[in-house]
Specification:
Elements lengths: L3 E7 L5 H15 L5 E7 L14 H13 L15 H6 E6 L2 H10 L7 E3 L19 H17 L1 H20 L2
Parallel strand pairs: 1-2, 1-3, 3-4
Helix pairs in contact: 1-5, 2-5
Length: about 180
């Protein structure tokens, strides 16, 4: 059985999409869904660099306590990866962390725009998850991470529906139905 892929995308695959991926994976495991895997990517590239949120010490010092509170563990070996066509094709569902990212994905990969959504749509909202890049306000980091976790927990049922629907739609398109 092929695994279904849920892709989360932010600007650099350093913070928001990574946290969303970890939270989604945790929720899927909690519900025993082994046929769905979550991955994350970024619009920007940091080619050749092993880069993750720990490489930004001021922001990491602010973010780490809230991640511990939410029981979210980010591997120090984590590497930021840029979104590419192969990953877009594999994904059953693509969740952008904000509207700017969503528009950029639509522009770069228009033939797959039908399976792209705003992350907050999992809970029926049309809101951006704030990009904490360069922001040293602890409350900004706290709210962004809490919101990501909250959306995953409260949007799980809709996530399952979307993954199933988009998987079927993608299959129909590829078969010319």
């Amino acid at each position: 059985m092929d695994k279904k892929v849920v892709l989360t995308v932010c600007n650099g695959n350093i913070h928001r999409s990574v946290i969303a991926e970890i939270c989604l994976d945790r929720e899927l495991k909690k519900h025993g869904l082994e046929n769905v895997v979550c991955i994350s990517r970024g619009l920007e590239s940091r080619l050749g660099e092993k880069c993750n949120m720990m490489h930004f010490p001021d922001e990491w010092a602010i973010t780490e306590p809230i991640l511990k509170e939410l029981d979210i563990i980010v591997s120090p070996d984590r590497r930021a990866v840029q979104v590419d066509w192969e990953t877009i094709e594999k994904a059953s569902l693509i969740l952008a962390m904000d509207r700017r990212v969503l528009r950029a994905l639509w522009d770069r990969f228009p033939s797959s725009s039908f399976k792209m959504r705003l992350f907050s749509e999992l809970v029926g909202k049309c809101e951006d998850i704030v990009d904490c890049k360069g922001d040293i306000n602890p409350e900004t980091h706290r709210q962004a991470n809490l919101r990501i976790n909250e959306i995953v927990v409260n949007g799980y049922s809709f996530l399952r529906e979307l993954v199933d629907w988009y998987s079927e739609e993608d299959k129909n398109l590829s078969e010319g139905i």
